[in-house]
User: What shape does this take?
Amino acid sequence: MFKLLKKALQVGEATVEYPFKPLEVAPGFRGKPIYNFQQCIACGACAIACPANAITMDYNLEKGIKSWKVFYGRCIFCGRCEEVCPTGAITLSPDFELAATAKEDLYCKADFRLTRCHLCGEYFVPAKELEYILAALEQAGQPGSASHITRQVMEVCPQCKRRQGIKTAVKSLPRAVGQQQGRG
Amino acid sequence: MITVKGDFNDNRDTKLVELKEKLKKVIKRSVNVYRVDCGGCNGCEIEIFASISPVYDPERLGIKVVASPRHADVLLFTGPMTRPMRLPALRAYQATPDPKIVIAYGTCGCSGGIFHDAYSVWGGTDSIFPVDVYIPGCPPTPGATLYGIGVALDLLQQKIKGEHHVEDEVSRVQPRHPNIHPDLRKDIEREARRLSGYLHGKQIADKYLQFLEEGDLQAVDGKVKGFLKKEKDPRLVEVYLKLHQIFTARMERVTGNVG
Assistant: This one.
């Protein structure tokens, strides 16, 4: 009896005082993913990496909006989004108090503008992503004066690029080959 | 098929809503919880049993897990709503006396989770029952469990809020480490990832690249050596040294070319 009491006094209290005092979490604890809208370039790497489809991206080509959405009620806190994010826009915080009474509170959404292709006028790429690519090229040593030309090349959608490629390829064919193909 | 709209209009039934509010006021320190497993992976159950252990001791708050739905005030639905477990879940729901508080526990309970598009899964708990509180987490930690039950009983405030950002003007996001050559950055990041995985590799590479902001080879060398002397983990030291080798080899090549 006394032995037991002695031991109990030595060990002290094992119960945490959680709801009344903050709970310490272990280092490296994966809690709520916190999204930094300023850093995000809407590249969609996290949406591809997300194994639970908690992060989704949708295009709206009529309005010219690409919308990003994370649903914490489907997130499994694996941290793959943090791994793949090129700009560090999403990081897992040690915050675990996520309970909500309404489902709407478990969503975090963001809308990005799309850029138009300057040949066909269709929306095709988030403007922020384009800016990021240009910034990365400048960092890689492209002079600032050339960025204007690069931007012109970039603001062409893949389909128009293919068409342009075909046109130049056909023009560069020697005439004889063209005639042969015509007969064949 | 029995669903929320057809049979359980609890939340729209004003009398029941009033009763539920009254229940939250009178329940005080006698909260009996019954958990219904609708087909989960047992992770949530293990975590519930971890949270009723003496370490978190929910009996302080009067929260107790009971063995029969007839005793329960709170129903914890864990796991995605699967086809075979739908009827037992319904029976448990109907066996629980009104007014009752329904909690969707864990990611699967909230929305079907990682199984949300599987062939035998209908989605979360809210595909059948009106849910009062969602507790996300895969599985929710004991702390999150206590917090969620606290929110359900109006003891604690809800912290999370839905967010919606709209882009007003396009701002330029600068790539990280602007003073370091992209090829060097790429080499270091790749090596760090190869050696210690994506997440930690990223953290290690970020830390190492901060040293490189010094620019001067001597300064960087001194800083890295000083940092490694304090580092106790031999694995980390080895990774940093490997990264440092890449940097020094590159610098030698560059200076050699210049010379």
